[in-house]
Design a protein that fits this description.
The complex is a heterodimer of chains A (about 1000) and B (about 375). By secondary structure, chain A is mainly β. Chain A has two domains: about 100 residues, Immunoglobulin-like (Sandwich), CATH 2.60.40; about 700 residues, Maltoporin, Chain A, CATH 2.40.170.20. Chain A has 13 helices and 52 strands. In chain A, the strands form eleven sheets. Chain A has a 22-stranded antiparallel β-barrel. Chain A has a five-stranded mixed beta sheet with strand order 10-15-16-13-14. In chain A, strand 2 and strand 3 form a beta hairpin. Chain B has two domains: about 240 residues, Alpha Horseshoe (Serine Threonine Protein Phosphatase 5, Tetratricopeptide repeat), CATH 1.25.40.390; about 80 residues, no CATH class. In chain B, helix 4 runs parallel beside helix 6. Chain B is globular. Classes of the chains: A mainly beta (about 1000), B mainly alpha (about 375). Chains A and B meet through helix 1, strand 24, strand 25, strand 26 and strand 31 of A and helix 1, helix 2, helix 3 and helix 8 of B.
Chain lengths: ~1000, ~375
């Protein structure tokens, strides 16, 4: 292939140019007290592997070019780069430093000194990630990142989590706004697959995403394997990844083996979980209607009966439905190495029995990674990861557990769900399902098998030129099935159904780099990276749905009478890119970085297939030039960047197609129809332009560290389906239209008020992001993502992403509410008015860590101010009078407003069940759109490192602890925890919650042993 | 110097490597769809959607005419403004583009029979559209985005287009040879072309009758002439029998009613005309088409138009009786011999009677025969 000849060519050149390498040894001590530092990372400049200092602070590194440079880095100390200068012994003294000088991993796994970066990024250590004991790594990042919004999809086992960096940039409702996930240079999928889970008739679900909270695939990664995560936020940071990372990138670095004795780590966590918040019920009124109790066989799920008597059974069925769940996690790893090789192997097992009966999630992971120095110049490495994630997920959304729960009357035991003959116990004569029966009989069963890994070759020509080739692959198979009996609401119209589906996804990436760094003059250093990338992606799905069960009780495809093939899909996408990154370092204080990338994408029309985007960033280290490092300011850096990133279309937008008619074959006859959507034959890529400025400073002798960014990001040529007059023969036209702007401020403030035997670290993050839809196309002035009937998630020109629209009362010209002759206001049903916005005004997280002699206490608080949500399930409970919200009733009121003649209203109206049950009243926004601001204790953990004197010499370390997450929640929102998204992860339908499994409060006990 | 030389060489090597990337990226064609559908896969589509459109039009119009009604109060049968959901989009998205594709393909493959069928179907759907909305688009329809603000044709022009389409269809259907011939893909007539010719003629008659008052006395003869070449018996009916997997929308409605999701059922106005309340006799067909709401009910009842079912009567009969129109495998009738007879009667009546005194058969009378217009 073409690559082979390229590599061969360079080997020849390299061998011709190289010099002789030697081994270097030395000792590393601390400047504070001249004590040896143990475990300091010693690497060859530009590498990401190396060695560590031993118990005496000594290290030994082989194959060091005589004119090379060694990088010494250690947590809490300033990183130092020292030129070898032909020496064989290099001793180093490290001074206490701050996080702003550490090594961070950037695009393609290339480590860089944070000092030289002209853009913002934020690193979270693996230990911090694991503090909350969340097994989905996206959940583990909650509360710590500035500029990043993370929402869980609820507390069901295996439920996904959604992550957005610096706002929502692509306004098309089906467009992807999630960042790129990279593990050691391997691009891994974080998709959430909703599959096809609905029957051919009888479902009112908006889409498949709302029916189950499917897992986001990054949860296949074992958190115990992670060394650190670096979040690249802006376009300048992700410029080298091109359009794959137009929404940012999450760069994950896993633990590596280090040369020396083999290390064994074992960790076990046992946890219990409970539902954290449920809707509040009223206990003043008994079941019934119009003040009269009702008796079977009449329908009896209203709570508008007589006043309850002491002794009447009232339970909070929202709470009683959930049980205590539990989790168990085991992880084991072996790592080590010699002077030529390193290896790491790990395995883990995780099991979660959820708070919903008959729900669970299991995950097994296994990993093997190794590096080997083949020759002096050639290093080979690779890893292979396997994960199996499987579980039973509880039904949510339309005709689910939660829709049934909102109808349920608290006077009936929600767990008494079976008759003596095993059939569903139903007090509602078939109007609603018993939610427990739904949970027990129709979960979504999924099993995902996944493999991802890479092989990489690193060749060092000489001290200033290197080449790297990496081939990566990520493959997973998602097998899922769901059975719905004819006795359930969701299946009644088709006499029950069974869906069986396979989803396969594979991606292969080939990456080639040439890296050089050269000191041009004493003042000027030049760093050049050139690269070539090829990506090949394929996602396929196949499935079948059988409807009409024949024999009762046997839920299997073979027992159905009508088969429907699920529309087969095969989405293939290929990308070729070349990029270059040039960095000029002037006197160590002025750093200019210029990048350029050109992509060729298969999904755009041939003439528009190639597109180029550049970026420029400048970093100015004040304390290395105009400001002398002093007691107040020890480090200060100003930086600014301009970057552009393109984004291509989904596959197959270009061309006219005929596809199978939905529901066909008709009997045995097949039929095709022309697609209802068509793409612009001249489709261009979306272009995002971002300007960012930032300040990094370290004050008062590293007592305080500060990092702040301000960014403005504009996305143009949004690829959107624009609705067109059906007379044209099409329903929508996918074209470039629309401009959206996201701007914001990110603040990271760290402090160490107390240092010494007792240590106190504080880290505050604060974010404020504003979004404006600057322009929308001519014939698409409004995009309605979701119209719920009483509210809508919609954007209009001049509005923002996340705008929630609702209904207002009819008002007169003076803005006063008009009251009718019946004493009631009238709903203006013709116009939806902008009422609120689902995105928060600002978010913040505060982490406090205290440590004293091996005892560590960590508390992470998180707050979201602003952000409105609609509880989709609540309306049924309002109409039935079960909620505390409806306790206020049966009284005479005078609504505030004016009569038709302008005089103040004086008509008395009765506020009773008819008020709550009337659409004309309960569709008003005050019943639907609520303030969902919240404050919570995101996690807290207490751990104790048992002193060496007690554990002896056989064990290297022993740590026990207790931790918890979602420990406290304070919010004005009436229903469940408003963080849980109704449409799950990977969806742009924000602002809605309430019909899925609520978040859980978790308490965990951990033990970690190291040998 | 050596460094720069090196860099240039590497760069040029890379560019060479990239040069051959064209084919690698030519993968943007959906393998699960086709760019060119064959005639026998388009025919079932337009016939299926014509039947669905018939239901979409009838479901609203029949409620306005109080033959069927909503179980919940204040809905369609309250004669509020209605958008006839699905009818417009189905005509312009699912019928006309696919029928046009059929005509083009038939022309290029010398298969006039298919072209004839497509034209009959377009005429039929335009007829539904203009009956509901008066002025609708046809000359600007299926313009493939060349005209994003298409103007509508006047109803007069639509009726002219309908007659023109039917005339052309009759000529094409009467061609002796057709390279591709419809067979089982013709889910209505199974490829019997003679039935299509009769359908075209009877449709001509129906639409000529619509415009007869405007076009004058000569049309009555044209109607009689067309009918003479049209349907000869109930066996000729233009109707679609759905399958036990692809439910007829009528069956789906009844199935929903029988499984707790009640929507529409017979209206009291209609039932009272058949159960002896309004006329003094009971129409013997009432027991075949309707059902009693409970086993103790003496007569067949319907819902009060606009007011719903009143009390909490549940509308699922315990014996799951579906009625002639709503049962599984009931035909969804689009044009029938019975209608042809009524057209014949009305044409004669109008021709021989004084127009000022002529009373058209009531809308209800025609519905009685199971017509949907």
């Amino acid at each position: 292939m073409r690559y082979a000849s390229l590599i061969f060519f360079m080997f020849l050149y390299g061998i011709y140019l190289s010099g002789q390498n030697t081994s270097v040894t030395g000792k590393v001590i601390s400047s504070q007290d001249n004590t040896p530092l143990i475990g300091v990372n010693v690497m060859l400049s530009g590498e990401s592997t190396g060695t560590i200092t031993d118990l005496d602070g000594n290290y030994s590194l082989l194959n060091v070019p005589p004119d090379g440079a060694l990088v010494f880095s250690y947590v809490g100390y300033e990183t130092q780069t020292v030129n070898v200068s032909n020496r064989s012994v290099v001793d180093v003294t490290l001074s206490v430093g701050n996080v702003l000088n550490e090594i961070v991993v950037t695009s393609f796994g290339i480590p860089k000194d944070k000092k030289v970066l002209g853009y913002g990024s934020q690193k979270v250590s693996g230990d911090d990630l694991r503090k909350s004991n969340q097994q989905n790594i996206v959940n583990g990042l909650q509360g710590r990142l500035a500029g990043v919004t993370i929402n869980s999809a609820g507390g069901a086992p295996g439920a996904g989590a959604n992550i957005n960096i610096r706002g929502i940039n692509s306004i098309g409702s089906g467009n992807d706004n999630q960042p790129l996930f990279v593990v050691d240079g391997i691009i891994v999928s974080n998709s959430t697959n909703a599959g096809s889970v609905r029957p051919s008739a009888g479902s009112n679900a908006v889409n498949d995403s709302e029916q189950f909270m499917n897992t986001n695939r990054a949860s296949d990664i074992n958190p115990a394997d992670i060394e650190s995560i670096n979040v690249l936020k802006g376009a300048a940071a992700t410029a080298l990844y091109g359009q794959r990372a137009s929404n940012g990138a999450v760069i994950i670095t896993t633990k590596k083996g280090k040369s020396g004795a083999t290390r064994i780590e074992y960790g076990m966590t046992y946890g219990i979980q409970n539902v954290d918040k449920v809707p509040e019920l009223q206990t003043t009124y008994y079941q019934g209607l119009s003040g009269i109790q009702r008796a079977l066989p009449a329908t009896i799920f209203w709570q508008f009966g007589p006043q309850a008597l002491p002794g009447d059974p009232f339970a909070n069925h929202f709470r009683d439905f959930f049980r205590t769940g539990n989790t168990i996690n085991h992880s084991l790893s072996f790592s080590g190495g010699s002077d030529k090789s390193t290896f790491l192997t790990s395995a883990s097992y995780f099991n979660n029995k959820g708070i919903v009966p008959n729900s669970d999630f299991n995950r097994i992971t296994a990993k093997l990674s190794a590096t080997h120095q083949l020759t002096e110049k050639l290093n080979v490495g690779g890893q292979i990861n396997y994960a199996k994630s499987a579980g039973a997920s509880p039904p949510s959304g339309d005709k689910s557990i939660y829709s049934a729960l909102t109808f349920w009357s608290p006077n009936f035991d929600v767990n008494d769900y079976l008759n003596a003959d095993g059939t569903e116990k139903d007090y509602s004569s078939g109007t609603i399902d018993n939610p427990r029966y739904v949970a027990e009989t129709s979960p979504l069963n999924t099993e995902v098998n996944r493999v991802f890994g890479d092989i990489n070759l690193n060749y060092t020509f000489n001290s200033w030129l290197k080449a790297k080739y990496q081939i990566t692959a990520d493959y997973y198979n998602d097998k899922r099935n769901r059975a719905v009996g004819a006795d359930l609401d969701a299946g009644s119209q088709v006499r029950g159904f069974y869906v069986d589906q396979y989803i396969n996804s594979s991606e292969v990436n080939s990456n080639f780099f040439l890296m050089s760094n050269h000191r041009l003059t004493n003042d000027l250093a030049l760093n050049v990276t050139l690269g070539h990338n090829v990506t090949d992606q394929l996602t396929s799905s196949r499935g079948v749905r059988g409807e009409g069960f024949i024999a009762s009780g046997f839920y299997n495809l073979s027992n159905t009478s009508n088969f429907f093939a699920l529309a087969p899909t095969d989405f293939r996408k290929r990308l070729v890119g070349v990029f270059g990154d040039v960095r000029l370092d002037y006197k160590d204080f002025l750093i200019l970085n210029v990048t350029g990338r050109n992509d060729w994408s298969s999904t755009l029309p041939k003439e528009n297939r190639s597109f180029f985007y550049p970026s420029v960033s400048l970093a100015y280290i004040l304390t290395n030039s105009i400001i002398e490092s002093n007691d107040i300011i020890s480090y200060a850096k100003l930086r600014g960047s301009f970057a552009q990133v393109g984004k291509d279309a989904s596959p197959y937008q270009i061309g006219t197609y005929f596809g199978a008619v939905p529901g066909f074959p008709f009997g045995a006859i097949g039929g095709f129809r022309r697609d209802l959507d068509i793409g612009n034959f001249n489709l261009k890529p979306e272009i995002t332009t971002e300007n960012e400025i930032g300040l990094e400073a370290s004050l008062f002798n590293n007592l305080i560290t500060l990092e702040t960014n301000y960014f403005v990001r504009k996305s143009k040529n949004q690829i959107l389906p624009v609705g067109v007059s059906n007379v044209t023969g099409f329903a929508s036209y996918v074209t470039n239209a629309g401009v959206i702007k996201n701007s914001g401020i990110e603040l990271l403030l760290g402090a160490t008020p107390i240092k010494g035997a007792f240590r106190w670290d504080i880290m505050l993050n604060w974010t404020r992001i504003r979004s404006v839809v600057e322009s929308m196309p001519e014939n698409l002035k409004t995009i309605t993502y979701y119209d719920q009937g009483r509210s809508a998630l919609r954007i209009e020109e001049g509005g923002s992403m996340g705008d929630l629209y609702g209904y207002e009362w009819k008002r007169n010209e003076k803005g006063e509410t008009l009251i009718g002759t019946n004493g009631l206001p009238t709903l203006d049903q013709t116009t939806l008015v902008k009422i609120g916005n689902a995105l928060p005004d600002w978010t913040g997280g505060l982490s406090n860590a205290f440590s004293y002699k091996g005892l560590t206490l960590d508390v992470l608080l998180e707050m979201r101010q602003g952000g409105d949500m609609v509880d989709i399930g609540e309306i049924n409970a309002i109409r039935n009078g079960t909620l505390a919200f409806t306790e206020d009733r049966n009284k005479a009121v005078i609504w505030k407003g004016v009569l038709a003649d302008g005089s103040p209203n004086n008509i008395v109206a009765i506020f009773d069940e008819n008020t709550y049950r009337a659409f004309g009243i309960n569709a008003h926004h005050s019943f639907n759109i609520q303030d969902a601001s919240w404050f919570r204790i995101r996690s807290a953990s207490l751990s104790y490192e048992i002193p060496k004197s007690i554990i002896g010499s056989k064990i290297r370390s022993l740590n026990i602890g207790v931790s918890g997450s979602n420990l406290f929640l304070s919010t004005p929102f009436r229903g469940y925890d408003p963080e849980a998204l109704a449409f799950g992860s990977g969806s742009n339908f924000i602002g809605y919650t309430g019909r899925n499994t609520p978040n859980t409060r978790n308490i965990n006990f951990n033990v970690r042993v190291g040998f | 110097m050596r460094n720069i030389y090196l860099k240039i060489s590497f760069l040029s090597l890379m560019l060479i490597a990239i040069a051959g990337c064209g084919d690698f990226l030519d993968v943007n064609t959906d393998p699960n769809k086709t760019a060119d559908a064959s005639l026998n896969t388009l025919t079932p589509t337009i016939l299926y959607y014509s039947a669905v459109n018939t239901y979409n039009a009838a479901n609203v119009s029949n409620q306005y005419c109080q033959q069927i009604g909503s179980v919940s109060p204040g809905l369609t049968d309250s004669q509020l403004r209605n958008t006839y959901a699905g009818l417009w989009s189905n005509i312009y998205l699912n019928v006309i583009p696919n029928a046009n594709a059929m005509i083009k393909k038939a022309e290029s493959t010398n298969s006039p029979h298919y072209s004839g069928i497509a034209k009959v179907v377009i005429a039929y759907n335009l007829g539904l559209g203009t009956a509901v909305w008066e002025n609708i688009a046809y000359s600007t329809a299926d313009n493939q985005l060349s005209n994003l603000s298409p103007a509508y044709d006047s109803q007069e022009d639509i009726y002219k287009s309908i007659q023109k389409l039917l005339d052309e269809a009759i000529v094409e259907l009467s061609e002796p040879a057709s390279i591709s011939k419809p067979a089982t893909d013709d889910i209505v007539f199974k490829g019997v072309i003679a039935n299509w010719v009769k359908t075209a003629y009877t449709l001509k008659a129906r639409y000529l009758l619509h415009t007869a008052k405007k076009t004058g006395a000569a049309s009555y003869d044209a109607i009689a002439d067309a009918l003479s070449k049209g349907f000869k018996s109930n066996a000729d009916d233009f109707q679609l029998v759905f399958t036990d997997k692809n439910f007829s929308p009528l069956y789906a409605t009844a199935l929903a009613n029988n499984t707790g999701n009640v929507t529409t059922t017979f209206s009291a106005t209609f039932m009272n005309m058949m159960n002896g309340t309004v006329q003094e006799i009971v129409d013997p067909r009432v027991s075949l088409i309707s059902y009693k709401t409970s086993t103790t009910d003496p007569i067949y009842k319907g819902v009060a138009p606009g007011a719903g079912s009143g009390s909490n009567t549940v509308y699922n009969d315990k014996t799951n009786f579906y009625g002639w129109h709503f049962r599984l495998l009931a035909p969804l009738q689009m044009l029938t011999y019975a209608e042809a007879k009524f057209i014949e009667a009305e044409a004669l009546y109008l021709k021989n009677g004084n127009v000022a005194n002529a009373r058209s058969p009531s809308c209800l009378c025609r519905r009685y025969q199971g017509e949907y217009e």
